[in-house]
Amino acid sequence: MSSPSHHDPASSAELQARERQAQRNAVVELVRVAPIAEELAERFAAAGHRLFLVGGSVRDALLGRLGTDLDFTTEARPEQVRELLNGWAETIWDTGIEFGTLGAYRHGTTVEITTFRADTYDRVSRNPDVAFGDSIDGDLVRRDFTVNAMAIELPSRTFIDRHDGMADLAARRLDTPAAPEDSFADDPLRMLRAARFVSQLGFTASDRVVQAMTDMAAEIARITPERVQVELSKLLCGEFPRRGVELLVETGLADHVLPEVPAMKLEIDEHHQHKDVYSHSLTVLDQAIDLERAADPEGEPDLVLRLAALLHDIGKPGTRRFESGGGVSFHHHEVVGAKMARKRLRALRYPKDVINQVADLVFLHLRFHGYSDGQWTDSAVRRYVNDAGPLLPRLHKLVRADCTTRNKRKAAGLQRAYDDLEERIARIEAAEDLAKVRPDLDGNEIMRLLGVEPGPVVGKAWKHLKELRLDRGPMSHEEAVEELHKWARDQGIDVP
């Protein structure tokens, strides 16, 4: 049974209303997918087998958000399942067959069918000794959370809820069917999944789940970095990522998987007042997501922006200095932070392009603060755009999200300054096409004008002309040739 959570203030009447709404949702959703689900169930029944919609599919049907990926379970063994899918599915795949799972596709719907499981775990790795079971009850009790441990038998549409999953769903509570200590000892990844579901569904973990996560946080070391990375990415791309991150930090799991985040909880003494870097970073994450959604309401979550927002200040603890006048400084924390972000994301096996983009955003996020006194030249604006490259739209969001201060007038001033910078970028872009800032002469022309073969000299000349282009804006062809010849003479190159 689920332990009550002190976090949820909902009354019993509200909970009953939520349960009734969830049941109505499920009926509507099941009618929508009924042709596929019922066709399949009738094939199984005709062969003497039972078929259950299960897990996340039931949870999402109750929440009114069932997609076109359906999960089923059955007592039929994998080879029997394959026979039943033959002739019905347009495509069948068996990459998960050693775990009892076959996948199939028909009429725009993907189904996964897994034979009842009754696994045992060695509690050293997270690899189960796969054993097939014979009952739906045995299958459901081994699932990760009660809201994922409900089933609907088809075609009769009989609802099965042995672990009060419906009550937990109505209370927006995350709990485990068995004791959480046993569940997490079997598979420590479930602790990260708890934080991920908190982020995706907006649920609150029950007290006993939080306690077990806290007591067992070190067990996460049994999980490979690749699997940790997948869960962290899903958490950050959820609807409420701040809540997921807070749960990781509260339970100590973040100390093992993302230690740079809890390290931002700097002690603030009475003489050296400055804002808590950890809380500030979560606020920046929230505000970056608001800007992301405002820019593209139907778009996919931006993992790179969200990682950069969370990690943009991780260099602060290592660069904090108390100044003689009572202030606090964090000189070059963006340089240190970019290196730290690169190192952590590499350890989590993120793809190289994600690592590079996040590190570049962390490195660039402070650059704007030199602009806020309005003294930048056009050359400095060009360099800002050039250094950001394709990351510029994300950098705009990150910098705006980072303009947080208790001083409302100062915050408004920062936003106005950034408005001004974006207007200047737009003006210069309209005149010069900043996205394609290149030297006024290309490599072929440089070789022809200097009479040189391909090699280092061409690259150096190209770089020199690009620097001039950034400083002065577009030049005429004659000016560019003159500057190239001047540079060549300075380098001791004979100009033909």
TrEMBL record:
Any one biological process term the GO annotation gives: tRNA processing
Entry GO MF terms: metal ion binding; nucleotide binding; nucleotidyltransferase activity; tRNA binding
Annotated Gene3D superfamilies: Beta Polymerase, domain 2, cca-adding enzyme, domain 2
Signal peptide feature range: none
Keyword terms, alphabetized: Coiled coil, Magnesium, Metal-binding, Nucleotide-binding, Nucleotidyltransferase, Transferase, tRNA processing
Coiled coil segments of this chain: 411-438
Domain HD: 277-387
Cofactor: Mg(2+)
Magnesium in keyword set: yes
Pfam families membership: HD, PolyA_pol, PolyA_pol_RNAbd
Listed InterPro entries: Bact_CCA-adding_enz_type3_sf, HD/PDEase_dom, HD_domain, HDIG_dom, NT_sf, PolA_pol_head_dom, PolyA_RNA-bd, tRNA_adenylyltransferase
NCBIfam families: HDIG, tRNA_CCA_actino
Protein name as annotated: Poly(A) polymerase
